[in-house]
Amino acid sequence: MILKAGALALSLFALASTAFAQEYTIRLSHGDNETNPTHITALAFAERVAEYTGGRVEVKIFPANQLGSEEEVIRAVRNNTIQAQIPAMANVHPVAPSVGVLLLPYLFKNSEEAHAGLDAVLAPMNDRITQEGGIRFLGILEKGFRVLTNSVRPVETLEDLQGLKIRVSPNEIVINTFKSWGLDPIPMGWGEVFTALQQGVIDGQENPYTTAQTSKFYEIQKYITEIHYMVWTGPLLISEQFYQSLPTDLQEAVSRAGQEAVVVGRAANAVQTEEAMVFLKEQGMVLSGAPKDEEKWIEAARGIWPSLYASVGGEEWVLSATTLMSEAAK
Ligand code: MLT
């Protein structure tokens, strides 16, 4: 009798272990250091996926471009060689044109407006990019405005910008925005930026305050200008092929984990941005705020919107997405 009860307990234990055994692995790549809000988002996602799936799905995180550049990884995500990624939006645009609407210069006025807009546009965006690129956004991280850093001079006007060697993401919208300001920017992959700054191949770059701190740009850059032209957005994205291979309950768990993780990352970024500004000043950087002639920057960059419609999914999509986002932000 005692033996039978023992055997029953053992087989029940075996059944329970089978039910909670890990069945799927998500390899998640991103290009930032482990102190960056991007990594905090990845950790929050991994924890929640484990919890909400009862351990059936495991997330393994690979920071600092360990699996390849953002441009390479997104192609691997499309064919499910890598399952998930948190890249900058500019690096998603080449495989899913409709995301380009989020790169239009001077789209958002602040982070709060961006959060409302990004959450509102998620579903219609997914309808398009699952088709265009074989990828799905679980949520969209936001890290504040991209700010311009350089090692040559304070940039307080458009005139100060002229002649500087500024690195930008290899993205046509970003390149054309800088061209609208009279500059010939230098497109370059993210992984090469620190060394290029160090060696003087470029004078400056533009990314959020938190990146200037976590990537140690204060060691090689002196001046910061809040050019306000683009809020850094980066999706927590997943391979659509992988997502469709999951049973519905796991799809829901993974989606919920992703939506919550970006909220954690946004909050961490808000706190870290304040800290980064203090820290960067302490390191001797000169923060000169917005350009004195910001209206000129805005006018020039907003002027190129119509020329970009064709490469961001068409005018109709731009109008519907921007209307949806501005309504949500009210
Ligand atoms: C870039 O400038 O290429 C990106 O913003 C870097 C990043 O992914 O943080």
Topology at a glance:
Blueprint: H1 2-19, E1 24-30, H2 37-52, E2 57-62, H3 70-78, E3 84-86, H4 111-133, E4 135-145, E5 147-150, H5 158-161, E6 167-168, H6 172-180, E7 186-187, H7 193-198, E8 204-207, H8 209-214, E9 223-225, E10 231-239, H9 240-245, H10 248-282, E11 286-287, H11 294-302, H12 305-308, H13 315-328
Parallel strand pairs: 1-2, 1-3, 6-7, 9-11
Antiparallel strand pairs: 3-10, 4-10, 5-8, 5-9
Bound molecules: D-malate (MLT).
D-malate binds next to loops.
Give your account of this protein's structure.
The protein is α/β, with parallel strands linked by helices. It has one domain (16-313): D-Maltodextrin-Binding Protein, domain 2. It is built from 13 helices and eleven strands. The protein has helices at 2-19, 37-52, 70-78, 111-133, 158-161, 172-180, 193-198, 209-214, 240-245, 248-282, 294-302, 305-308, 315-328; strands spanning 24-30, 57-62, 84-86, 135-145, 147-150, 167-168, 186-187, 204-207, 223-225, 231-239, 286-287. The strands form three sheets. The chain has a five-stranded mixed sheet, sandwiched between helices. It has a four-stranded mixed sheet with strand order 8-5-9-11. Helix 6 links the parallel strand 6 and strand 7. Helix 2 runs antiparallel to helix 10 (248-282) and helix 4 (111-133) runs antiparallel to helix 13 (315-328). The structure holds D-malate. D-malate binds at residues 31-32, 70, 87-88, 169, 190, 207, 211.
